[in-house]
Amino acid sequence: MNFSNQLDFALELDASDPLKSYRDLFHIPIHNGAEVAYFTGNSLGLQPKSARAYVERVMKDWETMAVEGHFYSKEPWWEYHEKLAAPLASLVGAKTPEVSVMNTLTVNLHFLMVSFYRPSPKRFKILCEEKAFPSDQYMLQSQVKFHGYDPDTAIVTVKKRPGENAWREEDLLEAIALHGDSLALVLMGGVNYYNGQVFPMKSITAKAKEQGAFVGWDLAHAVGNVPLQLHDWGVDFASWCSYKYLNSGPGNAAAIYINEQYLNRTDFPRFEGWWGTEKGLRFKMEPNFTPMDNADAWQVSNAAILAMAPFLASLDSFKTVPQEDLWSKQSRLVSYMSFVIESVAATAPFDILILTPEYRGSQLSVYFHEHGRAIFDYLMSQGVVTDWREPNVIRLAPVPLYNTFTEVWHFYSALKAIIFEVYATSKSVHA
Question: How far is residue 70 from each of residues 61, 78, 242, 302, measured CA to CA in Å?
Answer without folding.
Answer: 9, 5, 24, 10
